[in-house]
Write a structure and sequence with these properties.
183 residues, mainly alpha, two-stranded antiparallel ribbon, 9 helices, 9% strand, globular
């Protein structure tokens, strides 16, 4: 739905921001902190931070494009030239290569003030949570309303984060317009 406008440099900046401001960053922790930031941003501002699709996986929501990029770093996918700067920004390590090390600082010029606000709020709220707590917290209304291994609806994400009825209508209209434009 939103792949056509996915901004790799913005995604890299967001993930680097999380990785450089959390204790023991892992794929799971980064994905969940990003998901919670996205929910906040949708509820407050009516748009996602990144134009990535979140997939309802067993251990909670996973950003599809970003997951694929990390799978490439881990040697599980074919290299895509368009994402080379993303690949170069991270190291993965550990037995299953789930631990993340940032190799550079985030370029905050790629993120809006509202993006960084929601990212930092999510980091503050979730940094100290472990795998089990992050998983349970992410098994929310949006995740529960998606079929496993399928896309999570942004409207449910916003609703779960407390978006007003007016904001929900705005998000629905915006998504319909995007779908029409990319059809």
């Amino acid at each position: 739905m939103l792949e056509n406008s996915f901004d790799i440099e913005k995604a890299k900046a967001a993930v680097l921001l999380i990785a450089t401001n959390t204790d023991n960053p892992t794929l799971h922790k980064i994905f969940k902190i990003l998901y919670f930031a996205e929910k906040k941003h949708l509820a407050k501002y009516g748009r996602p931070i990144l134009k990535d699709r979140y997939i309802a996986m067993n251990y909670g929501p996973v950003p599809s494009e970003i997951f694929d990029f990390f799978d490439t770093i881990r040697g599980k996918r074919v290299f895509e030239e368009r994402a080379e700067s993303f690949y170069n920004a991270f190291d993965v390590y550990g037995e299953k290569q789930y631990n993340i090390k940032a190799k550079e600082q985030p370029n905050l010029d790629h993120l809006s003030k509202s993006d960084t606000e929601c990212l930092f709020e999510s980091i503050e709220e979730n940094n100290l949570l472990g795998f089990k707590d992050l998983t349970e917290k992410s098994h929310d209304l949006a995740w529960n309303n998606a079929d496993r291994d399928n896309e999570i609806d942004f409207v449910y994400m916003a609703r779960d984060a407390g978006a007003s009825d007016g904001m929900i209508e705005y998000i629905k209209e915006t998504l319909e317009l995007r779908n029409f434009c990319f059809a």
